[in-house]
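Response to reviewer comment R2.3. The reviewers asked that we include at least one raw input/output pair. We reproduce the pair for DNA 3'-5' helicase II here without editing.
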Amino acid sequence: MIDDLSPEQRDIVDLPLGPIAVMACAGSGKTKTAVHRLAAMRQRHEGSGLIALLSFSNVAVDTFRKEYAALLRGLPVIGRSSAVEIDTMDGFITSNVLRPHGHRVMKCDRAPYLVEGREGFLAGFKVYDGKISRPTTGIEVACGGAGFRYSIGRGAAALPAKWAEPALAKLAAVGAYSHSAGRYWVLRVLREKPFVLRALARRYPHILVDEAQDIGPEHQAILQLLIDAGSHVSLIGDPHQGIYEFARADGAFLQDYGTRPGVSGYNLSVNYRSLPDIVGVANKLTQRADTAKRAAAMGRTIAYYMPFKAAERDHALTSFRSLLGAAGIDPAHGVVLCRSKPMTAEWAGELDGQGIGVVRCLADAAISRDQKKNFHRAFIQTCLGLSGLLAAKHGSLSAQLARPEDDDMRRLRQLIWSFVRDPATGLPSATLVADSGWHPLLVARAQALIATMVGNFGFEAADNLGRRLAKTKLEARPLIAVAGLAIDVGATFRTSTVHKVKGESLEAVLYVAQKGHVRALLNGTGTEEGRIGYVALTRARDLFVLAVPDNCLAEFEAELQAVGLKRV
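Raw output as returned:
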């Protein structure tokens, strides 16, 4: 049935139905293995119910769906065993638990919906932390055994349950929940309504979880409930790529799962992505002995480090471009990776945003459209801004427009798209001076759009539109410099955080590190910072360059060379 799998991959794919744990190195064909395993499970499963393949990003899910569909075309359909479901972990629990059953514990009279935290109606939902009132959407919920712990604020200060739970319940009563609270309500449903858990386990007797190192305590608790209810859960992932410590996902569940009674443990140890020099550096950082499938490049260095000065960013990028040229790599395939969003914005050459509240949302939308050419993001930001100009009862506008259910919402979606696309009559151009040119046009056009929404679509406007559209923190300069528009997009590098490219295969990588990032990388993958550096390294296929601050290079140079990196 399958003729292009390695012996390691075939051993996993051909296993009988049952729970397994697979530890996979970077570039080991994990996606391919998971898709083939899913197809094999589909053929072997003869009972009722579905087989689920879950991951943690929409990109991964799209990839799985495409590859599974391609594989499926060559396989026979055997009764109901063809039924599979591929989704994100959060999408799975939302569609199967929260949306159809959340009202049972949230005490709302509508299907629950997700809020981002910037919707205007949320101003009426606050929680007291002992000193000040904070947005209820800022409450972080952590699973602790059979109960929950609550925190809030940047310092993650503990929040007593007697304050947190009533605040969450008040927000839930209107059907709203945040990302963190969504998992809380799912666990409440599964624990308090056992018939839902039993039905879910019957519906999904086999569940395969990809990127299992990203399973945090809340997702682990949900999976454990399903295991206890009879579902067979299999995990596949790489603990060295666990980079979501903020969600308390450290790979421990994956590492321990293979030691459980009845669970079989396996490894994938061949890297099909990277050239041997990159795999060699990765092995020294992880103390693994993975092998590279690709042949070594002759006559050129693959893995570099280079010093850079913060004030000379363009010089570092020019050096990277030169290395790409020497390696015969199209500069368009070079990617600059950074540890944080502020660093990414700096290396992408972006200006700081302007305005506050609704105006900030719409300013960001104009920047997304005019500088980044990302019309989808501009539309999302515009919808978020418009929701702040409507009465609180319309707080779910963004969610409604994402999935319009009737002709009116579809017509409104088209109207807002027209507003976003046309800087001449809709969202003003980001090249206008923000406070004196862009803002007056925005106020007039946004108010006209709201008037249309009120008159033609039955919406109710918020009070004090003028105050909500104030030009606070808009400056006497354009939202984006005209020079920024003149840059040839093809001549610029894609710039991203490491987290956003996790799971991707990139031809060439420049990882821009600060002193602490370099230290963590050299110390190995025992910390999240070290794992982030490892993920940056192992995205690269043909070229990896580590940019090290020149004022600390002497401290690290011997160690950098010891792991196999060479100076530019």
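The chain has four domains: 7-93+191-271, 102-187, 276-349+489-567, 357-480. The radius of gyration is 26 Å. Further pairs are available on request from the corresponding author.
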